[in-house]
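User: For a teaching handout, I'd like to show students what a predicted protein-ligand complex looks like in token form. I'll give you the sequence and the SMILES for adenosine-5'-triphosphate. Please answer with just the structure.
Assistant: Understood, here is the input followed by the structure.
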Amino acid sequence: MNRPLLRWRQSGSAGRLLAGLAGLVLMFGIWQAAAEIGWLPDRLLPRPSSLPVAWIGEIEGGYWQAAVLDSLSHYTIGLLIGSLLGAALGICAGTLGWLDAGLGGIVRLLRPIPGLAWVPFAILWFGLGSAGAVFVIAISVFWINFYAAHAAVQAVDRDLLEVADAFGHGHFWGRVVKILLPASAPGLLAGFRTGLGQAWMSVVAAELFGVPGIGARMMQASSLLATDLVLIYMLTMALLYAMTDTVFVLIRRRVLAWQN
Amino acid sequence: MAELTALPAPVVTLKNVSLSHGRGGQGTPVLTGITLSLRRGEFVAVLGPSGAGKSTLLRIVMGLLKPGTGTVELSGTNGKGRRIAALVFQDAKLLPWRRVLGNVTFGLEGLGLSLAEREARARAALALVGLAEHAERWPRELSGGQRQRVGVARALTVDPDLLLMDEPFGALDAITRSDLQEELLRIWQQTGKTVLFVTHDIDEALLLADRVIVLGGKPATIRSDLVVGPRPRDRGDPRMAQLVLRLRALIAGDRAPPPDGWIASDI
Ligand SMILES: Nc1ncnc2c1ncn2[C@@H]1O[C@H](COP(=O)(O)OP(=O)(O)OP(=O)(O)O)[C@@H](O)[C@H]1O
Ligand SMILES: [Mg+2]
């Protein structure tokens, strides 16, 4: 799949991993060095070597685990609900001309509104709880999946639908299950993957207003100017994203084995 | 030439079929007054210039398009593990997300067979086209000729009364094409299928078919319906050469034939 446009050498996945790690080590090294020399005062940006202590303290207090579990549950539920609904509506709109036409205005109206803007309504409708956070996350990935699914379904080779017709699968469900879904799977999964990252960003927004989780913990820390804690939760989120994305890529490789 | 006693029953009969593409069949007429019938076991080729309506005719027979007027009658029924008609597409049209085996079982799904039965049938069809050992491959891993064979296997595996083929070998190189032509003849003789074979290659039509139908005109009608002589066909036979000339003139239609020696004068 992702073949580089310009290749610097055929490097295996182990090589890529090493290069990625080297880049990270270099970044933290420069950061630490800048702090040691005195160019980067700790009140502006805590030095990397100060983070493990703070991290361990946060874990010993039990705050870290609680925040991660809360956020993970918001993330997973919101991501799944938003992605499934978005993809389903996108598939329907991409398939049914009348629905597409009917939705045209609504989509243009709602599309540009960021998830964060829905926070007041999330509080009003769902209260200051998990449901509100889930709602904000779901909205933020809904449109990504809607557009991805819409485009994917529209790009399906019409001739393959004729193959379904010719071999007795021309009825609605035959076309959807045997042709439309598998043919648009690459596009659907691409949309889902974009949502995978977007949803982590929305976790912060969704929890800013006080729903317990990583976002809420970051807010508390930043109001106390505990920048080391803020950094720890930023890193936590990055790690969680890296994990979810890695798992997703492994699953996708299986599902789309027919490509490449 | 043909025995007139005990002719087999027709598998498909078209009566006065016409069709117009476009909105609600109100657009430009493509086919008109097509009356045609194929007897069981017959191999009929359809010739005609590009855009004549050959694919359209196959789609009508297959039931993918409804004729504007006239009737299409297929004798036979879809039943357990079989369909009346099956179509081989011009460029295979395999489903890229299914392995070769899955592509061949595609037409068998929903016909009341168990998974094991479907796979056994599909493997048998793949063996018939010489691809038994490629069952687990992805379509992208096949050559054009192999893909086309899979398309043939997919159609054969539903044990159709009528095998429809739309320029199945048109995109292949000459050697692969001639291999597949021979293979098709062997399969046809082995299975006794009724075949309606679209091509724009006169030699191919004369090599394969019992009868050659020429479509032409706008809208297209059947310009001629010729019975070809006994098999095996010999290209050196002067009667064949005659037939080629005649078909060429029929396909060219109103256009004047090229002047004698035009190739030499072009150089
Ligand atoms: N869906 C369609 N809508 C409108 N016109 C169509 C459609 N499909 C085919 N046509 C027209 O109908 C005519 C016959 O097309 P058809 O595909 O049957 O030709 P053909 O004989 O199979 O040609 P070729 O040898 O190039 O495959 C052409 O003029 C084509 O432009
Ligand atoms: Mg055609």
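For the handout, you might add this sentence: Residues 74 and 134 of chain A are 5 Å apart (CA to CA).
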